[in-house]
């Protein structure tokens, strides 16, 4: 197919006009985002089914997640969406310096998000709060057995409550079958400052009768997959940054920046749903 001599360099050979290329690119990105919504939609359905069947597990498990760290990551991603939108606007206006600055800021916010997730993940891994058969709380891995938890109304410096005697009192109902083999959720070891304190005795006791590892399985799958999307977004942002340094974008061609911004906004929106579902359970 032949083109006119004034065919723009950024216009692919199979498009007749820049507008046709722009509309085709936007349509393709929106179709891709729909597939991403379907992917996370299936995970949200998975979460809803198990949450409805075992609400006690999710109520107990989320006590080991720090709302302040989750809230910090939420603010970080919201601000990164603003800087990404400003980067798109700078590309539209042909402001190369502002474009580079906003892309760099968005990349740094993404690094901050992953840094906070590293703190959370390292805390869970060290304490054995992992999914499935890897769920081995720190005290159980060392053979310490059951760890008493201070009552909910006890002062912060109160010693732990004494462990209950092994023999059951006369006339007490027998424990349900398999209760002795159920995973016990024990207080997490001392972690970095700002991590959530251990749950109360009542919450831990309730969690001990349930498959608490199920919550952590859902937590790691959903947040881990979202983290991979953050890394993919960082790769796209870095690619846009180096192209912008070479002057690849102008008021007549800023489609890649716009498409990268759409993807990054989806990453932010998914986390806005994950944060209340995992950290703000009531």
Word description of this protein:
- It is a single chain.
- The chain has 282 residues and is mainly alpha-helical.
- It has a single domain, classed as Up-down Bundle (Four Helix Bundle (Hemerythrin (Met), subunit A)).
- It contains 8 helices and no strands.
- The protein has helices at 18-53, 55-61, 67-93, 96-126, 138-141, 201-208, 213-245, 255-279.
- Helix 7 (213-245) packs antiparallel against helix 8 (255-279).
- The longest helix has 36 residues, at 18-53.
- It is elongated.
- The N and C termini lie far apart (62 Å).
- 24% of the residues are buried.
Features:
282 residues; Four Helix Bundle (Hemerythrin (Met), subunit A)
Explain the layout of strands and helices.
Blueprint (H helix, E strand, L loop, with lengths): L17 H36 L1 H7 L5 H27 L2 H31 L11 H4 L59 H8 L4 H33 L9 H25 L3
Helix pairs in contact: 1-2, 1-8, 2-6, 3-4, 3-8, 4-7, 7-8
Summarize the entry for a quick read.
The chain is an all-alpha fold and 282 residues long. It is built from 8 helices and no strands.
Reported by name, the CATH topology is: Four Helix Bundle (Hemerythrin (Met), subunit A)
Largest sheet: none
Give the C-alpha Rg. Answer: 25 Å
**What is the name of the CATH superfamily?**
Cytochrome c oxidase, subunit III, four-helix bundle
**Which stretches of 5+ consecutive residues score pLDDT under 50?**
139-154, 178-194
Provide the domain count.
Answer: 1
CATH class: Mainly Alpha
State the helicity in percent bands.
55-70%
Q: Give the SSE string.
A: HHHHHHHH
Structural class: mainly alpha
N- and C-termini, Cα separation? 62 Å
Percent strand equals: under 5%
- Helix count, per DSSP? 8
């Amino acid at each position: 197919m032949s083109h006119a001599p004034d065919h723009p360099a950024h216009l692919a050979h199979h498009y007749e006009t820049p507008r046709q290329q722009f509309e085709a690119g936007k349509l393709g990105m929106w179709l891709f985002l729909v597939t991403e919504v379907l992917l996370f939609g299936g995970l949200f359905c998975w979460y809803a089914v198990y949450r409805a069947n075992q609400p006690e597990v999710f109520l107990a498990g989320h006590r080991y997640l720090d709302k302040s760290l989750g809230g910090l990551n939420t603010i970080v991603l919201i601000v990164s969406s603003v800087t990404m939108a400003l980067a798109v606007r700078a590309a539209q206006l042909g402001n190369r310096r502002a474009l580079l600055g906003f892309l760099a800021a968005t990349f740094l916010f993404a690094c901050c998000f992953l840094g906070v997730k590293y703190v959370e993940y390292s805390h869970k891994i060290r304490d054995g709060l992992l999914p499935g058969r890897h769920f081995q709380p720190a005290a159980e891995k060392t053979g310490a057995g059951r760890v008493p938890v201070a009552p909910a109304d006890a002062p912060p410096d109160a010693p732990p409550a004494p462990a209950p005697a092994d023999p059951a009192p006369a006339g007490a109902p027998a424990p349900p079958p398999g209760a002795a083999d159920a995973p016990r959720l024990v207080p997490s070891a001392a972690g970095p400052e700002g991590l959530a304190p251990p749950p109360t005795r009542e919450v831990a006791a309730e969690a001990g009768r349930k498959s608490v590892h199920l919550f952590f399985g859902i937590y790691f799958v959903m947040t881990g997959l979202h983290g991979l999307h953050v890394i993919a977004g960082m790769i796209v942002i870095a690619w846009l940054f180096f192209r912008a340094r070479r002057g690849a974008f102008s008021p007549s061609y800023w489609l890649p920046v716009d498409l990268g911004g759409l993807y990054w906004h989806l990453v932010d929106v998914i986390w806005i749903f994950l944060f209340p579902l995992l950290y703000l359970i009531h």
